[in-house]
Amino acid sequence: MDQFMEDPFLAASRGVGAGSRRGWDVREDNDALYLRMDMPGLSKEDVKVSVEQSTLIIKGEAAKETDNEDDRRRFSSRIDLPANLYELDSIKAEMKNGVLKVAVPKVKEEERKDVKHVAVE
């Protein structure tokens, strides 16, 4: 349960109510999971979005503004996304005006391999 408090996306991806963290927004509909993250002061060149196995990794780091490491803007999150529920090869990300938007399409129910439809007689 502690991990759900740490990362609201992790909770959302597992069907637990989306947590609230300042600057984060998670929404889901029948087609996709939509993530929005405020990353003020960063440009698209400062942000990296990747998928490793079934984990979405979002990292952002501003170019070196000062010599003091504590003053640098850094963002980092790891979000577990079950591969059987989401199309991990079709994720789209857009960075504009300090806001990162990520869309993670869902696998259509009829295409899911873990769903077995039973004929009713």
TrEMBL record:
Coiled coil among keywords: no
Keywords: Stress response, Transit peptide
Domain of life: Eukaryota
Domain called SHSP: residue spans: 15-121
Gene3D superfamilies given in the database record: 2.60.40.790
PANTHER family with a match to the protein in the record: 23.5 KDA HEAT SHOCK PROTEIN, MITOCHONDRIAL, SMALL HEAT SHOCK PROTEIN HSPF
Family: Belongs to the small heat shock protein (HSP20) family.
Listed name of the protein: Small heat shock protein, chloroplastic-like
Gene: LOC111021390
